[in-house]
């Protein structure tokens, strides 16, 4: 923000801007440069200068100043705006673990695990070797997608192993409660466990790093 700019230019408003526009510009710049004390003082000074200029014009009968704006020191501060929590405000360990992939990355990994899920559904439930191969391929794909992000192979293996344990554990638990329902739709406990493992592989490889 150059010192050669007039107060209106410093706030980025025109000289015929409304009081609401001036107030909004001042609040926006103050929040934007909240960590720069010198720049915030410059913004406040420019705002005060504009208000004094408007008051002078009012005394000369050129404009009408709203009743709520009399003197700079009496201007009520704008109410704080609510901003929803973002990842930037979350704990450091979560920022290091969480990832925000692009749409293409999500679709690419989803396609891979969807193919593996299709192989699981169309394979013979009694064919344990095929289900084991599907889980192994899903485990390897999870490691690949995770390692591609930050080249941390050990971390990728660990997170993939967590996904495998959660998938197998949850699948086994659900199968024990839904035995009759699974039989009704022709789905075995092994197939359910494999599908849940693939689902957790996709979630981990897409949204963690």
Characterise this structure.
There is one protein chain. This protein is mainly alpha-helical. 67% of the residues lie in helices and 0% in strands. The chain is built from nine helices and no strands. Helix 2 runs antiparallel to helix 3 (37-59) and helix 6 (128-150) packs parallel to helix 9. The longest helix is centred in the C-terminal third of the chain and has 25 residues, at 153-177. It starts with 6 loop residues before the first helix and ends with a helix. Mean pLDDT is 77; it is low at 69-75.
How many angstroms separate the termini? 39 Å
The percentage of residues in β strands lies in under 5%
Distinct helical segment count: 9
Q: Estimate the helix proportion, in percent.
A: 55-70%
Largest sheet: none
- Would you tell me the overall average pLDDT? 77
Order of H and E elements: HHHHHHHHH
Backbone structural class: mainly alpha
Gyration radius over CA: 30 Å
Number of beta-strand segments: 0
Low-confidence stretches: 69-75
Shape: elongated
Give keywords.
67% helix; 9 helices; mainly alpha; elongated
Please describe the topology of this protein.
Blueprint lengths: L6 H5 L7 H14 L4 H23 L32 H6 L5 H20 L5 H23 L2 H25 L1 H6 L4 H19 L2
Helix pairs in contact: 2-3, 5-6, 5-9, 6-7, 6-9, 7-9
Question: TL;DR?
Answer:
This protein has nine helices and no strands. With 209 residues, it is mainly alpha-helical.
